[in-house]
Amino acid sequence: MLSRRFELMIGLGVMALSALTLWWLIPAYVALPQRPPLRALAPSFWPKIICWIMLLCGAAMTLRAAMTPPPPDVIVDSQTASPPELMRLAGLAAILMGAYFALPVFGMVWVCMVTFILLVLMSNSKHLILGLVVGVVLPLGLYFFFSKVAGVAIPQGQFVRLP
After folding, report:
1. Mean pLDDT of all residues in 15-38
2. Are 44 and 32 in contact (CB under 8 A)?
3. What is the pLDDT of residue 112?
4. DSSP one-letter code for 80
5. What is the value of pTM for the model shown?
6. Would you say residue 66 lies in a domain?
7. Does 28 lie in the same domain as 71?
8. Given CA atoms 140, 145, 147, 153 in this order, what sign does their dihedral have?
9. Is residue 94 part of a domain?
10. Overall domain count for the chain
11. Of 40, 56, 75, which residue is a domain's last?
12. Angle at 123 between CA 162 and CA 84, to 5 degrees
């Protein structure tokens, strides 16, 4: 359990980041076509949706932190990480760095599949089979939706190309 002050600062930070993105970064740096065929296909549509959701989540975190009574000091966790947590964090960093360097070579779909499956294996979840199925079906489904329905080109690799 985090301290109220820490939760309050996280909530306010999330709200500030989403407001900055919503009202400055998206209008200033996302190129908009004059008339997109569908509003959901406009380049700024999904970033705005995500920013509004972040803003609401930050407000919920802030309200929750402001309205709950403060926990006793003995319940508040220390912010130090144990060696297994540090190893898991180092594994996450290695997986994400590997994904970053593999993207231009193998393409987004294959790298996302492998990355998702490695993260599921690293989490030691009891839903391993479901995680493996989702790790294969989700990137393929998103690829076919964006490439066939939305008409958005997804970066493909140099070795295996999807139809």
Report:
1. 88
2. yes
3. 94
4. -
5. 0.63
6. yes
7. yes
8. negative
9. yes
10. 2
11. 75
12. 135
Which of 43, 75, 107 delimits the end of a domain?
75
**In the chain, which residue ranges form alpha helices assigned H by DSSP?**
4-20, 26-29, 45-67, 83-106, 108-123, 128-144
Q: Mark whether 54 and 112 lie in a shared domain.
A: no
Mean pLDDT of 8-16: 95
**What is the C-alpha separation between 146 and 41, in angstroms, rounded?**
10
Assess contact for 162 and 146: CB atoms under 8 A.
Answer: no
Q: Quote the tokens at residue 80.
A: 């130090």
> 51 and 89 in one domain?
no
Give me 130's structure tokens.
Answer: 């479901």
What's the domain range around 19?
4-75
Task: Measure the CA angle with vertex 113, ends 108 and 115; round to 5°.
Answer: 90
Q: State how far the Cα of 116 lies from the Cα of 134, in Å rounded to an integer.
A: 8
For the stretch 55-93, pLDDT in tens is 999 999 999 988 987 666 555 556 677 888 889 999 999
Residues 109 and 89 in one domain: yes
* CB-based contacts of 68, cutoff 8 Å, min separation 6: 4
pLDDT digits (tens, 9 = 90+) for 82-122: 888 889 999 999 999 999 999 989 989 999 999 999 999 99
